[in-house]
């Protein structure tokens, strides 16, 4: 099985006719995902890559039955695009755009309140259920269907660990890139809840980083429930200097708070098996499953 997306997911692309939208739509369609519409104001009534283009998300949903969206829209307009998708009632919204202003994301978070929409991102590599559906920019070459759920803050580490898992015959149920920005949609807890309820996910890998509170929230959640499945964690940034941003906006460690060591300690207290580094993740998963 899978979480959030599967073979039934019908995807529309906001910004489909741009260079990035064209490239990633073509990749996903070639992979076998079901992409049913593009959205570009002023281009409605045309086709792009053989897919109909509509003026608005609402029109595209009404005409095609789309259930998910890929937002490939420049940062100044990305929040409006996400809110349009939320208002159209889409189940899953994936935003890969980087550098969306924080005050814009505050508007998006308010728009999500009281809805059934799940936002992944922004600044996310997307979501991949191997052999069924890809939304975003996540590579598919090394992905393999299986029973390991992955939730990650780091795109590069996701690719490395996913490839290592597949090489060890540890296929994935779903891989979710929660996004590297400080204000984002679904986090580790939302992923953990869904993987817990997925009967065919046997273990979960969390790929964390310094900065933010995703790892702390995951530890608090795991301490409050009987999870019933092994959770394997990795926290990158052990050697990063405090008070400096490493990579993207969400990795800022300030004034000694939320360092890698503190995150590791809290995860271990919650029962998470923490790997030493990326190369140690597969062996830790195998030990946990035994």
TrEMBL record:
Active site positions, chain numbering: 248 (tele-phosphohistidine intermediate)
Domain of life, per lineage: Bacteria
InterPro entries (UniProt xref): Cit_synth/succinyl-CoA_lig_AS (IPR017440), CoA-bd (IPR003781), CoA_lig_alpha (IPR005810), NAD(P)-bd_dom_sf (IPR036291), SUCC_ACL_C (IPR005811), Succinyl-CoA_synth-like (IPR016102)
Catalysed transformations (reactions): succinate + ATP + CoA = succinyl-CoA + ADP + phosphate
SUPFAM superfamilies in the cross-refs: NAD(P)-binding Rossmann-fold domains, Succinyl-CoA synthetase domains
Gene3D superfamilies reported in the protein's UniProt record: NAD(P)-binding Rossmann-like Domain, Succinyl-CoA synthetase domains
Pfam family name, one: Ligase_CoA
EC number assigned by the record: 6.2.1.5
Keyword match Nucleotide-binding: yes
Record's GO cellular component terms: succinate-CoA ligase complex (ADP-forming)
Annotated keywords: Ligase, Nucleotide-binding, Tricarboxylic acid cycle
Enzyme class: ligase
Chain ranges of the CoA-binding domain: 4-100
Pathway(s) it belongs to: Carbohydrate metabolism; tricarboxylic acid cycle; succinate from succinyl-CoA (ligase route): step 1/1
Keyword Ligase listed: yes
Recorded GO MF terms: nucleotide binding; succinate-CoA ligase (ADP-forming) activity; succinate-CoA ligase (GDP-forming) activity
Function: Succinyl-CoA synthetase functions in the citric acid cycle (TCA), coupling the hydrolysis of succinyl-CoA to the synthesis of either ATP or GTP and thus represents the only step of substrate-level phosphorylation in the TCA. The alpha subunit of the enzyme binds the substrates coenzyme A and phosphate, while succinate binding and nucleotide specificity is provided by the beta subunit.
Family: Belongs to the succinate/malate CoA ligase alpha subunit family.
Assembly: Heterotetramer of two alpha and two beta subunits.
NCBIfam families: PRK05678.1, sucCoAalpha
PANTHER family, sorted: SUCCINATE--COA LIGASE [ADP_GDP-FORMING] SUBUNIT ALPHA, MITOCHONDRIAL (PTHR11117:SF2), SUCCINYL-COA LIGASE SUBUNIT ALPHA (PTHR11117)
Protein name per its UniProtKB record: Succinate--CoA ligase [ADP-forming] subunit alpha
